Amino acid sequence: MNEVRWGLVSTANINKALIPAIRASRRGKLVAVASRSKANAEAYAQEWEIPQSFGSYQEMLDSGSVDAVYIGLPNHLHAEWSIKAMQAGVHVLCEKPFAPTLEEVDAMIAARDETGRVLAEAFMYRHHPQTKIAGEWAHSGKLGVITLVRGAFDFFLPKERRYPDSLDVRLVPEYGGGCLWDVGVYPLSFAQFIMGGPPDWVFGSQWTGKTGVDEIFTGQMGYSQKLDFSEKSSFSIAQISSSFKTPFHTFIEIIGTEGRLYLTKPFVGHHEGRTMTFCPKNGEPEEIPVPEKELYLGEVEDMHAAILDGEMNYLSLEETRNHVKTVLALYESAKKGEVISIR
Ligand SMILES: NC(=O)c1ccc[n+]([C@@H]2O[C@H](COP(=O)([O-])OP(=O)(O)OC[C@H]3O[C@@H](n4cnc5c(N)ncnc54)[C@H](OP(=O)(O)O)[C@@H]3O)[C@@H](O)[C@H]2O)c1
Question: Residue 324 in contact with residue 97, Cβ under 8 Å?
């Protein structure tokens, strides 16, 4: 086997990002799409020039036509369909957030262990050169001791996606809706990457919208672990925010005792104006060059390396589990109005 045959589980909007990435990859081929409706699947296959279409997800999994699937379903269906895919012998790249409960994440990991299939969380930005360069700066000690990581992912969810007949899955509580699950997980996972693990404690606050999900969420996270590059034991903070009620805005700022690194648009493609600047403690700000790379290509190539070459996925399931654990603690904190310890 020297090529991975991909299938899309659903006709989700986000497929638009994955389709060009699979097609741009060296060892991947998009062969099928499945939808809950056969007519929908056929129309989608025609529009996107996909050879096969299926009127049910299970039918595609059982067809023998696909080696791997991309799961871009609403959050509450991630675990169910990841597990069904692995049980059918198919590898899985599943969208973030992996699942809205730790029980489901553990069931997904157990299915991976039982079936020997590859399973990974689709956090595309983690594979981008900018994120890796920022990690090198932080972990090599160039920024000194990291004291603070700040970050945001805000956008405005349009009015037309707020009516009952066109309600966005992000606004449905039982679908794992809410802005922290949807986009707060980006700065949260970035902070976890920089800090080398989950926080010791969290404090969250939320503004709840009409449908009962958080439409603005801010979180503070405390880390007391000793970071590898320093002799000193350090205490660091991360502050994150996410919103469905703010014009689009994303950034990450990593602050250390020797300077700070500022990333504009760390979670979007190059064409949208990605930059990285180092502001030293003393001296002039310096622009750090970032190699261009199609944003979603890295996660697809990572799956190919795992499936075809037997390599470990770059983003471990331990990290993924910690993302979910931290989100759940932040929601608990916002509900109780208390600091929650998570270690
Ligand atoms: N990595 C990223 O950049 C990124 C960006 C956006 C979203 N996402 C993630 O991708 C996932 C999907 O988001 P999206 O905005 O693409 O969603 P979406 O457009 O609403 O699509 C979800 C799809 O799931 C299927 N589905 C099955 N059961 C459903 C139900 N009960 N209600 C609604 N749809 C149902 C539908 O496809 P069929 O009708 O064809 O079966 C639908 O098209 C989420 O987990 C989200 O967090 C990731």
Answer: yes
Least confident of 3-7, 231-235, 302-306: 231-235
State whether 185 and 41 are in the same domain: no
The rounded Å distance from CA 14 to ligand 1 centre is 7
| Residues 144, 110 share a domain | no
* Range name among 8-17, 205-214, 215-224, 271-280 with the lowest pLDDT average: 271-280
CB of 56 closer than 6 A to ligand 1? no
Q: Is the pLDDT of residue 152 over 70?
A: yes
Give how far Cα 268 sits from Cα of 193, 194, 245, 260, 322, Å.
18, 19, 19, 21, 23
Q: What is the number of the ligand 1 atom nearest to the C-alpha of 33?
A: 40
Structural domain for 175, as ranges:
126-295
Q: Pick from 9, 73, 76, 175 the residue to mutate for probing ligand 1's pocket: most ligand atoms within 8 Å of its CB.
A: 73
Same domain, 64 and 213: no
94 has pLDDT over 90: yes
Catalytic residue among 84, 96, 226, 293: 96
The answer to whether residues 187 and 138 belong to one domain is: yes
Atom of ligand 1 nearest to the CA of 40: 40
Structurally, how many domains does the chain consist of? 2
The dihedral built from the CA positions of residue 196, 198, 200 and 203, taken in this order, carries a sign that is positive
Which atom of ligand 1 is least distant from the CA of 176? 45
Confidence of residue 292 (pLDDT cuts 50, 70, 90): confident
Structure pTM? 0.95
Active site residue 96: yes
**Is residue 87 a contact partner of residue 111, using CB atoms and an 8 Å limit?**
yes
